[in-house]
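hey m, so remember when u said the tokens were messed up on ur end? i reran from scratch. heres the input so u can diff it against urs
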Amino acid sequence: MTAVGPFRFFEFDAATNSVIWEESNGAIHRAAFPGTRGALGTNLTRVRADFDAGELIVGLPNGNSATAELPMPGRSDATALRGRRILYLDQRDWSSVAGARFGVAKVNKETTEAAVRLAELVQAGKLVVPISSGHLTEADALLGKKRQPLASTMLELSRGWQMRHPLNIGKHELAAALGIESSPPARVGDVFTLDSNATFINFPTHPSPLPPPFDEIIPAISAISGTYDTVIDATSAPDGGGQAARLAWARAHEELVQLFAKDKASPDMVRRAALGRLLLDYAEQLVRDRQLDMEFFKEWIPKAHDEVPRMPYFARLWDIQCARLRGRGKWSPNDLVDIHMLAAAAGYADVVVGERRTISDLRTAKRRAPAGAELATSLPDAVALIEAQS
């Protein structure tokens, strides 16, 4: 990769509150950053955009550095992913990797070896380990000495790769099935991306006053830095009602379980009710986005039983919801994260690792869904599956 326009790199150093940049002719310049120290508005100690390498290197508060791949003009996410495997980790497994790397938790020998091999595959450019909004949500619960090692591990090994929010993945799948999406059904390069705002449901965008190609690159740098700050410091991003929404979701599903038990609902009735609820949730989003006419959607509903099993994420989500609604266990707010994130990842990644209950549900769902990820319940098994695929 060559220099972008007249620049090869630029760097912000928080210690000196200065900016350094190099032109394509080799000339290096330094200037004071406008304003007082900390004017960049970030916890990061250093931010360097290396256009030759297509990378953003950030200095973390714990002294480590993390590298993120930059979305570069003319290079799609699908192109950047070519020849690489995608492994989606549950938050539990991110914590295991952090424990192995920083010694902040007891991790057995097999898991430690798997964590080392995972990092080697990432550094060799053979593996992508994306983060998601579920990881950011569950990281918020961590306080004290474990938070920084986990944040550092996630940032260093994800290298800027993120999974789009499941709501947007589901909207895309449903819109494609309805024939109202201009693009074809979602592909791996549509789901796992270097777009650093991808974890959000809706992220406001505004036309950039910067000339090309900086109109794309500078906002990407800002977004990556903001995401890093959010992972490192939970207070940097407000909850925005997210926890209340998750609690309401869990209560609503517990009420459904009780209703089905009271009415002695058959498995088919539960399955139909679950599908109707999911479809209505996503259709309402499309209506709000002015992509769908509700009358048109009602006419399509009879086709849903044939169409949904063709959707990698939606088919798995439907099946897991049915399994959980037929059970008698309690629903927790974290179920919302596990079910949606792991179902989305399992539809498009190469390997997904998670807790036994959700992985068991996904294995059952796999029989009625398009081909997707291989599934594991431990980090050593997940890394072994990745190695076998390579």
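this time it looks ok to me. The first strand starts at residue 7 and ends at 13. if urs says something different then somethings off w ur setup not the seq
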